[in-house]
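Hi all, long-time lurker, first post. I run a small reading group and we've been trying to get comfortable going from sequence to structure in the token notation. Rather than ask abstract questions, I figured I'd post a concrete chain and ask someone more experienced to write out its structure so we can walk through it together at our next meeting. Sequence below, copied exactly:
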Amino acid sequence: MQDRWNAFMPYPDADVGRAPTGPLSSLRLAVKDLFDVAGYPTAAGNPAVLAASGIKTATAPLVQTLLDTGACFVGKTNTDELAYSLIGGNIHFGMPINPRDPTLIPGGSSSGSAVAVAAGLADLGLGTDTSGSIRLPAAINGLIGWRPTHGSLDNRALRPLAPSFDVPGFMTRSLEPMAAVMSAVGMPAAHDRPSSILIPEDIFETIDGAIADEMIASLRSSAMPIRKIDSIASFSLADLAVAFITILQREAWTSNKTLFERSPDAIAPDIAARLRSGSRLDDEEVRAAYRIRKLLSAEIDRLLCENVVVALPTLAMSPPTRDAQPESFAAFRSACIKLLCLSGLSGCPQLAFPAASCAGNVSLSLLGAQSTDRMLMNVAGRLRPD
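-- Answer (accepted) --
Happy to help. Here is the structure in token form:
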């Protein structure tokens, strides 16, 4: 397969079996290079991890489930180093090219899986989402992106970043294959629909006013009850982002401490700096962040227990160009985490998709109560009929 988008890792092909028939038999599968696949190494975007990996003899159970339901493996995909970024760059293996707009970043860390799907090289992009690593590249590349309920999918033989946030998830070009993969991985069917869609005004006020108006108009087109609320939590978005980043940095340090101490020079300077920040965090600061997460989770649970879903913009601002300065990348990451951290902190599922009636690169998201993943798909189907 010709890969002019740098979506895939340059590994020699190995035979990866699959079931000849099944619900996913017509779909090509690209797998982020954090999951083990028999016959391939697992690099996690880092040369020292690659050197220590060896060729895996077993396949991650989630990947095996997809193969057993007929999906056709087409390769392992590029990722931000250690899955620790939202930009899509990698100084060791290069930044994948955004097929929708080659001047823009592809988003990460599931950059290769997003690009493979957007370029038509795969139908299912398996990735991971810790701080937005599926939802953000899905939005930038015009895809459907699903961050499942935390803990609902098998994460064995998946290299961790921050385990209390990490989830495997998927990207597709349309809703139909996403519905198929949800069924294949055992998500329970949903036969109801929410009583209303909530629009938190404090969040929509943080984005461009014209885009916010377009999104709200798109939501109203579904003919479902829409209700505006002041906010979805008593905490500010800034405070939630700080708590999220504190937990993320501590857990990322714990996951990568051995690598950092053995091979510090094999880690890109910006990634190494974030790891060092995690190593220096005060224990009380971390405990305070976990307390905020617990309180937020309780607030979100109370809000969503009434069979409602929350509509959110997926991106806080337009993505930067791939040749932008590091300061622009940092500003983009910081702004987007304020929106993307809500799902991570609460453990709730989120589904991102292009807003059908909006001009340009506009992505809407739906946030639901835990285990309402299929209901989010039903609502998205009303908002964006394929």
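A couple of things your group might point at:
The beta strands are 28-32, 72-77, 124-129, 144-147, 167-172, 196-200, 226-229, 308-313, 350-354, 363-367.
The first strand starts at residue 28 and ends at 32.
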